[in-house]
Amino acid sequence: MPDDGGRMQRLYRPDAHTRIVSNPDFYDKDIVSIRDMTRGQIESILDLSAKMVPYANGEKVARPLAGKIVGNLFFEPSTRTRLSFESAAHRLGADVIDVSQVSETSISKGETLADTIRMVDAYCDVIVLRHPHEGAARLAAKFSENPVINAGDGAGSHPTQTLLDLFTIKRAKGRIDGLNIALVGDLKYGRTVHSLADALTTFGANLTFVAPESLQMPEDIVKDLEERGCNPVVTSDLGGVIGGADVLYVTRIQRERFPDPSEYRKVAGTYRIDNAILREASKDMIVMHPLPRIDEIAPEVDGTPHAKYFEQAFNGIPVRMALLMAILGGEL
Ligand code: CP
Q: How far apart are CA 91 and CA 70, in angstroms?
């Protein structure tokens, strides 16, 4: 939620700032990076997300955002983020316009992202953007009068995923502070773990980074976390970590971000969570994954009490409902 310094002059809704709304911290603000939010602001979204659960699963029905339009621009593949934003909007009574491929847009004719954003901005009340390039959401926020939500920008960040990850941990464990949380897999290219490590440091969790050396957490991120008082353990030894973990957050090795396919083949399949390795885990250790998974979690784990990843994917709906409510000023 950066300040509005770079935002263009408001053209279409000159009275947008005069409304009285329930959450001035988020109303009409961009969500570009989890670093733009304080711990208190994150907690307020997690609290609102908990209230959204009965609306997210259809037990209760309300249309506080009737008349609003969400613009879903997904210029990189997505299942969960795109559909859960769409579901969240519908559950709240908002309409959705969407693009799921560059080839469907005039970007394929050479139009810039900036011009595309200027147009779509006029067609909706909030833009949800996934883009292959790091920094794209920040750029879009600059050119959009309406708020922009970053739905993942290249290897950059994925703040709404981080919010739903925090929500999942808090619901499963009752707290985040002091938990031992191991992030496993592709920590170099995995944007979800960059944002999550940041937020978990804000919440005082103990972090362990488990990855092959070539896919470890980037040094600048580790250094930054250390400066903020977190002293993460950096290792490639998954077996040595499982017994002490409260949360195992597993990630896919991001084949599409490797410049050289032969480098991908060297590390593909390095870690696999199965029932044999989980015998080392405490009985209430939870396994999370932002999904999609390839082969890093065996299907046999799905039926165990450890598996939280499908619940985690569902949690994308109440969390994104909470964000849309807060940003668009919905009241229940
Ligand atoms: N977790 C996540 O971002 O999934 P999608 O790529 O399917 O949206």
A: 12
Ligand 1 atom nearest to CA at 291: 1
- Measured in Å, residue 145 CA sits from the centre of ligand 1 at 26
224-256 exposure pattern, b = at least 16 Cβ within 10 A, e = fewer: ebeeeebebeeebebeebbeebbbbbbbbbbee
Does one domain contain both 84 and 62?
yes
- 262 assigned to some structural domain: yes
Mean pLDDT over residues 24-35, rounded? 93
Residue 77 lies in a domain: yes
**Phi and psi at residue 300, to the nearest 5°:** -65, -20
Per-residue pLDDT, 6: 45
Nearest CA to ligand 1 atom 3: 81
- On whether both 50 and 119 belong to a single domain, the answer is yes
Domain residue limits at 63: 34-157+315-328
Q: Is the pLDDT higher at 6 or at 299?
A: 299
| Together in a domain, 153 and 190 | no
